[in-house]
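Researcher: Good morning. I'm working through a list of sequences from a screen, and I'd like to move beyond sequence-only analysis. For each chain I'm collecting a predicted structure so we can compare shapes side by side. This is the next one on the list. No need for commentary yet; just the structure.
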Amino acid sequence: MDPTIWVGHREEVQRAITVATAGTILVQNVINRVVQALTLRYLGVWSTLDHRPGTNGAQATINRRAPGTTSGQWLSDTTEPDEDTGTYTQTTFAYRTVVSRGKVTRKMQRNGQSYADVLGIEIMEKLDDHITVLESGAVVGSAAANANQINGLLTLINAVSGQVVANTTATAGGPVILGKMDQAVDLVKGNDSEKVIFGSLNGRRKLNAALQAQQQFVNMTDIPAGFRVRSYDDIPIIPSTEIPDDLVWNGSAPSITAFTGGSTTALIIVNRRYVWFEDQTPTSVLPLAKTTSQADSFDIFTDVALVHANTKGASILGGIAGS
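Model: Good morning. Structure tokens for this chain:
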């Protein structure tokens, strides 16, 4: 550049705009329109198990039959067989309600309308919060602890004698033992193609570490909705961030005695034919009647039961180190 151009323009050069003098004023920053949710959530139980229409009444009702003591006899042609019948029982699973409420002020909606539909954003994000509550209930829910709550998988399966396999008797848990994992899978009735394995992120890593140590490989498989996940013997391994890593483990029972305060996690094996959700009222969003000009409120609600129809339809591998 010819330096003579600046001759006679010293004043203009001295008055040049710099970042220090006006950089924050004469710049229009563009705000990304995507609102980032500051959560790490895997809601595998709620999204993977079947959802079936609920019925009228307060509960889902299941009839069960246990075989008698004598299934049959080898007899001569002159001997009468002993009479023996199965035992029938009826089990109920109460519909419970989860409700979430949100509110966005009128002024916030007005101020933010050039950016996005603020009310719509809050409803969508609140819906994710709502489903997280449902996921938690489906895993660790306990009607004994909260009468308004469903019983979750850990509560239901833990109550069935013989359906909990001890990975180790140590209360601190240990690495996954593949032989114990196979035992837990074998306890679940039905074909392996109908089964899924639910685990925390840590539990999934523990299973993967055991496979790698045995020089086996974790394959991938498709599950409903087009997701691809890891698999164990072609059984999908579905993550859920609501499965605790601080379960209290009593390996001598074996059983999980508390859902917090311990140092273990668990893997849950479920046959989707025998365990499902019944949605009496599917998850719905309802704008509430306006009682003020200052805000719009809404409720999100679900009436649901978790049905554990067959006690042989699920199992737990407990006593896995939680860290």
